[in-house]
Amino acid sequence: MRIKYIYVLFALVVVQITSAQDFTMKNQNKVMGTINPSFYGFGDSSKAGVIYSTEGYNEGSKIENRFGFANHYFADNDFSLALDVNSTKISQLGYSVTEANLHYIYKAQLSYEWTFNPSISVGYGNSRLDYSSLVFEDQINVLTGYIAGVSRDPVNIDNKINYLDIGAGAVVHNNRNMFFGFNLKHINSPETSFNSNASNKKDMFMSFQSGYEKDLNPYGQSTFLPENSYLYLFNSFSKQGAKTRFDLYQEAILGNISFGINEHFNKYDGFSVSQMGTSLSVFIEEIEVGANYSFDIGSKKVGGTTYNTFELYVTFDFNPFKKNRRGNNSRFYDMQ
What is the pTM for the complete model shown? Predict the structure, then answer.
């Protein structure tokens, strides 16, 4: 009985810490709206996509995440609407959170070359902590290994909370090769505590982004590179409470194939974690399919494995002009 209460208390503490921080995608450079919704208006395009990821040391400690989005550009009114849904689950702790966000992105033409995309976001979040998903000592038969579906202990609680979330952001970009972004999430500091006698508000999430693209074969004269070859660099800095994070991406787009490397640096209350990743994607007409695998650098192994992340994504581009420029997968293809 005492062991079970300690386990429940431990799970609650871990979930409280987890729910106060945002899950950050590794494929930010592919779906930039995950880090800043203003990017849904980037390129005056309509798109949709999904991302699936798992991260952790082993199957028992995995964090599972699903993300889906769709956005549409209203050309006659110079604005975009986007909807995204994000679901994070830690099965071993019986914890899950689902967030749905609606974004409005406006297009302001600063000059022939530069465009400004401010955005506002309103979201709804639901967090659930299901103690019945946990497996305790009295459910395990040490002789047979059988795990009973029900604990004899009466402590079997489902708990959930709902909250409203507000955000705002902006992106400024030219029509050739460069952009800068800024975003704020959780401006209203939504309450996420499962304990009615304590507070666990989400800290404001602040992030900066920058991107640059260089044409590696501008005149199509290289015998080694496809005509549409680009070097794409994307960087972001994020801060949320005591947590800071740098994400750096270097990607080569060679016709209908892209590959790259990425680095991630996290710091939380004096504890630092560094990760390196590799990515590969294939463009099939207006569809891009890709994956990213990241692993810790210099961290200690747990159970013979290191902390790793695997993400798989698919995106669809509905821009009608995309069909006229097949094989050109520049991030700025529809602005040039």
Answer: 0.84
